[in-house]
Write a sequence for this structure.
């Protein structure tokens, strides 16, 4: 599901040329996918709490595949309407995405009883998510060597593979469909319970939501910026561009894996590692703003440090929110968190495309300021009890 969005990043300049559209229009291919997911993810989370995780995930994967198929075939029949049809296909793909990847977090919470096992598994999930981002620029660039629409046609193949794997390999807990308490809450009762959670836990939950938004906003904003700059400023295209984009994502992937392994059940450790990750992200954005885009190796040192920062912060936030919510509300609450992360994904590329009228320094000072604000939120609002 990560590939479904991230594979487009290195291909966006090619799409802009082939479809004769603007940079802002190309950014909408990321945004429309993410906006519909923002709206539907909480609903999918509620449905997964009520009816079961797999019963939501499998139809959603099929819908995502159909959306990708429409995008990939648009150039064959749509003519001058190709871009519009692709946007519609991305909208459908976003519907499917809403009920697929975001349901993984509560499912992991259902499948493991020990908090240390949950933390480790969530670290693996975040690593897998990031590995998709690592592979995506290289895979997207390779597929685009054939034709730009092949990137979209790969989505049905990946979705079908995922459906088969979910059906055959995931053994959901028997109590899954009852939310873990043997009783299905009606929607009105469920909303009431969520209001109570918001009242009791709203301070730290809103902090984690904010951090999720900022991390994804900066990540996808920087990737969008780099994809454009590597071609326009450094004349780096194709697979080599994909390899360079994979460098900071590889750092993110490795740091996610290591963080998931070391946080265990220690919630204070989760907070302070998260704070450290956000501090590193802030420093990296400020470094790019201060030193500029040249030389290229230094630019990627700074971007790599930012990737490590995000890779450290996100597994900590995942574990805090998954382990801090009761099982019967876990699907919806973690899905709201996933929805917040998609806000960052949706906003990052168009915001950066509009900011390109500024200097590079202005763009990265702004992202550094946003990262610093998330750091402050983490310091002040997340207050886990020692040993809890």
């Amino acid at each position: 599901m990560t590939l479904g969005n991230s594979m487009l990043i290195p291909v966006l300049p090619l799409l802009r040329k082939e479809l004769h559209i603007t940079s802002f229009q190309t950014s909408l291919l990321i945004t429309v996918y993410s906006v519909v997911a923002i709206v539907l993810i909480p609903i999918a989370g509620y449905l997964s709490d009520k009816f079961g995780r797999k019963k939501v995930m499998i139809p959603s994967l099929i819908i995502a595949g159909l959306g990708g198929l429409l995008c990939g075939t648009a150039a064959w029949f749509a003519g001058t309407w190709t871009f519009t049809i692709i946007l519609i296909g991305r909208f459908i793909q976003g519907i499917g995405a809403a009920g697929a990847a975001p349901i993984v977090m509560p499912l992991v919470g259902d499948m493991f009883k020990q908090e240390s096992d949950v933390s480790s598994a969530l670290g693996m999930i975040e690593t897998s998510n990031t590995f998709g981002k690592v592979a995506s620029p290289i895979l997207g660039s390779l597929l685009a060597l054939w034709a730009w629409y092949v990137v979209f046609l790969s989505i049905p193949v990946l979705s079908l593979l995922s459906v088969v794997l979910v059906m055959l390999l995931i053994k959901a807990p028997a109590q899954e469909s009852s939310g873990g308490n043997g009783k299905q809450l009606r929607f009105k009762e469920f909303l009431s319970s969520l209001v109570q959670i918001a009242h009791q836990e709203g301070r730290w939950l809103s902090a984690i939501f904010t951090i999720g938004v900022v991390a994804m906003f900066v990540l996808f904003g920087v990737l969008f910026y780099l994809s454009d700059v590597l071609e326009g400023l450094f004349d780096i295209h194709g697979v080599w561009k994909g390899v360079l984009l994979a460098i900071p994502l590889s750092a993110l992937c490795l740091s996610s894996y290591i963080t998931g392994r070391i946080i265990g059940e220690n919630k204070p450790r989760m907070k302070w590692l998260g704070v450290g990750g956000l501090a590193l992200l802030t420093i990296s954005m400020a470094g790019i703003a201060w030193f500029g885009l040249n030389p290229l190796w230094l630019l990627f040192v700074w971007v790599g440090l930012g990737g490590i920062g995000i890779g450290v912060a996100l597994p900590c936030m995942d574990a805090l929110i998954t382990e801090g919510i009761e099982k019967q509300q876990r699907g919806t609450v973690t899905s709201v968190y996933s929805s917040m992360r998609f806000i960052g994904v949706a906003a990052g590329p168009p915001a950066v495309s509009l900011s390109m009228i500024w200097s590079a320094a202005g763009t990265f000072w702004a992202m550094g300021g946003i990262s610093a604000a998330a750091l402050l939120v983490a310091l002040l609002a997340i207050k886990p009890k020692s040993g809890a």
In short: The first helix runs from residue 3 to 6.
